[in-house]
Amino acid sequence: LNPQMEESASSALRPAACRAKGGAPGFKMAILGAAGGIGQPLSMLMKMNPLVSVLHLYDVVNTPGVTADISHMDTSTVVRGFLGSQQLDAALTGMDLVIIPAGLPRKPGMTRDDLFNKNAGIVRVLCEGVARCCPDAIVNLISNPVNSTVPIAAEVFKKAGTYNPKRLLGVTTLDVVRANTFVAEVLGVDPRDVSVPVVGGHAGVTILPLLSQVTPPCSFTPDEIKYLTNRIQNGGTEVVEAKAGAGSATLSMAFAAAKFGDACLRAMKGEAGIVECSYVASQVTELPFFATKVRLGRGGAEEILPLGPLNNFERMGLEMAKKELNESIQKGIAFMNK
Ligand code: NAD
Ligand code: LMR
């Protein structure tokens, strides 16, 4: 594959100086796993983002087709495709933001941790590429189990001597997107007007929605709290079961990743006051990684915000979340140090 194939036909016709180069000043970003269920719609959404001047699509299969297709969208973002491990470095060189949705999805009956054996190695190799080719890029990591893959990525960057905890962000936005949707349904309001902090991690009981901190302020009955907590914690499984073997959430995940990626890009550009939940290196609890609200800035997660006041139910949930999270974090670190 010629990585620049979509540009080459037209460049033969006119000198470069006469052609619109696309990409008004903006950021260069790569999607690793771009031909997958998340990767394809995410690539489309990032091609629509005016902050992205150059979009690199990398996968081990099918990127020529996905790239040809997406490159016909008449937005200014220049799209280039990269296929196979020998093109990983070219895909990553010069990137400001790297979003990683590469790896196997769940089937019914599996936990996210059941993906560890396959996905840990994929994340390791891709992050080694980031360390080699764009060590200053901000990384948004989607591949499951996120609770373990983020610690794996951190270890890769530490070994390479490029680790900056502010630049490594585990994507938990789908939990927030789901929480906003389900809470809005119960309240009978527009989900765009609701904001639910979701902390902890991204699997089962580690997904901890803070319903006492919903904005606009509101209250729930004990039955509503039980229903909402259970639905938010099991939103991923709800989709896996509905897809019945055909994969896990892809479209809502692409939406969530595009939302989070856009927040990172706006912050990188200097927009102030951008706060999103993300699973990051943290001192909010005794665990080395934890998802809370973070203030995004030019360098990534500039400030990790505190948990805020929890009620008894949330305090109990926090203890359960920490126990499981600790095991997942240790498993990720051990994978890199065996
Ligand atoms: P998919 O199987 O449809 O796509 C995965 C893509 O990754 C495929 O195109 C595959 O070729 C590619 N890939 C595999 N190995 C690769 C490698 N070494 N380098 C580059 N690309 C490689 O799966 P999907 O539905 O898109 O899900 C991808 C991952 O995202 C899964 O691990 C899933 O569990 C996870 N996920 C996370 C969240 C979250 O909230 N963080 C939500 C949904 C899914
Ligand atoms: C999700 O929350 O939808 C993802 O983590 C995918 C999954 O396996 O549930």
Classify the secondary structure makeup into a structural class. alpha/beta
Give the C-alpha Rg.
Answer: 20 Å
Strand order of the largest sheet: 3-2-1-4-5-6
State the distance separating the first and last CA atoms: 37 Å
Low-pLDDT runs: 1-6
User: How many helical stretches?
Assistant: 11
The biggest beta sheet is recorded as: 6 strands, parallel
* Helical content class: 40-55%
Mean pLDDT: 95
SSE order, one letter for each helix or strand: HEHEHEHEHEHEHEEHHHEEEH
Number of strands: 11
Multimeric status of the protein: single chain
Give a list of the ligands. Answer: nicotinamide-adenine-dinucleotide, (2S)-2-hydroxybutanedioic acid
Provide the β-strand percentage band. Answer: 15-25%
**Morphology:** globular
GO molecular function, one term: L-malate dehydrogenase (NAD+) activity
Protein name: Malate dehydrogenase
Keywords: NAD, Oxidoreductase, Tricarboxylic acid cycle
Domain Lactate/malate dehydrogenase N-terminal: 28-170
